[in-house]
Write a structure and sequence with these properties.
Order of helices and strands: EEEEEEEEEEEEHEEEHEEEE
Radius of gyration: 18 Å
Structural class: mainly beta
Largest sheet: 12 strands, mixed
Distance between the termini: 44 Å
Number of strands: 19
Shape: globular
Strand content: 35-45%
Amino acid sequence: MKFGRFTLNRDDEVRKGVLTSDGIAEISGDIYSDWFYLGQTFSSEEVKWLAPIVPNQVIGIGANYVADKKDLPEEGPEMPVFFFKSLSSVIGPESDIVIPEMIEEVKFESELAVVIGKEAKDIEEKDVLDYVFGYTVGNDVTAPQYFHKDGHWTLGKSFDTFTPLGPVVETNFDPATARIQAFHNGTKKQDSTTDLMIVPIKRMISYLSKVMTLKPGDVILTGSPVGAEFLSENDVIECKIKGIGSLENPVTHSNRKVTV
């Protein structure tokens, strides 16, 4: 099933729905446990998609893809590089990625995002998928200029609008066969399958669960394939995963200065 959040073109009320062959069927309740149909269905022309969920937290993993299978290490890192992204960085499809003034370079990073569906603590790799609610498309927008010299990445990842998610969360999806793509102004720049991950999804979620208790609504960004490039004002970046959908966002520039 494909779950999403949206508003209607005629009002600003935030609604939840399931994408069906007939349109977007409105629902209510907790998508992770107990929800129900409200009886209204809207066409895609009537709605504006939002980020498909309001995340509980957003966690990313860094440098997690190789260009070719022959480059995969025999063993992954003992301690993977994880980082947090601010909740204010989350936006939905078609919303602007805003580059603040004083930031010199911003990169797009198309990623498969995992949405946790139930509380997970100290889980084994073989059980990880039992705790996954579904998957969506993410764009881990990054300002390398704000990476700390000691290796901390959170600031460079957390500017407002730097985490587009969407368009939906797909619950019936096989991450082992996923192909992650990015199109920069219509030109394909990223195109990799998840078998090029250095730290596989099951390992990264199991590892995280042994550090912290994962909760429903936690979003795990699973890394970006090679090919990410820099964005400029008036660009359009489309992140795409077959079976989930297309996440497209324009890029603008603000006059908001950032001082540290």
